[in-house]
Amino acid sequence: MTTSAPATSFTDPAPIERLERAAAALTEHGFAVEILVDATAARTRVKDLIPEGATVFTGASETLRRSGIEEDLNKSGRYDSLKSRLPMDRATQRNEVWRLISTPDVIVGSVAAVTETGSLVAASASGGQLPGYAGAAARVIWVVGAQKVVPDLPAALHRVGEHCLPLESERAARVYGQPSALNRVLILNAEPEPGRGTVLLLREAIGF
Hints:
Elements (H helix, E strand, L loop, with lengths): L15 H13 L3 E5 L2 H11 L5 E4 L3 H6 L1 H7 L4 E2 L12 H9 L3 E4 L3 E3 L4 E5 L5 H7 L2 E6 L4 E2 L2 H24 L7 E5 L8 E6 L6
Parallel strand pairs: 1-10, 2-3, 2-4, 4-7, 5-8, 7-10
Antiparallel strand pairs: 5-6, 6-9
């Protein structure tokens, strides 16, 4: 089964009715969900949700960068930012790096798609944020723009490959000198640990 979605559906913010359907399905699947007006509201809410001094890791995310959340978490001095400890020597300290970024008190990031059936889809070239998302981190907060809401998993995977990857490859080539790759994809269909995963769904489009 495949789902064909027009390109505009990957960039235009979903209407409130679709956000509410996704929120209801995610809630039924064990996620805590809040629908917020915009990135400014999300920036404030993230500060409320994370206690001062908590160990925090931020997954690579245009949403976090553009909203200012990434700077708040890694440069404010309010939190124990793992990004501020990196880069370590990944050749000689690989296991230590992975332990640190996989098991913080809180990992904050975004996802490539949210389905109206209640799933989250994340993709990564390195996979650095995925262990924390999947269950290793004590808490996870995802900040998600309204344009990322899609009907179902086929549409979500189509969005990842046809929309997100080209944009991320262009960004990676500019920043790192090489394109990105769709090496790892994580599908979260439910959160079995109550209170661990929070999804902040925004009514505006932000990020890829």
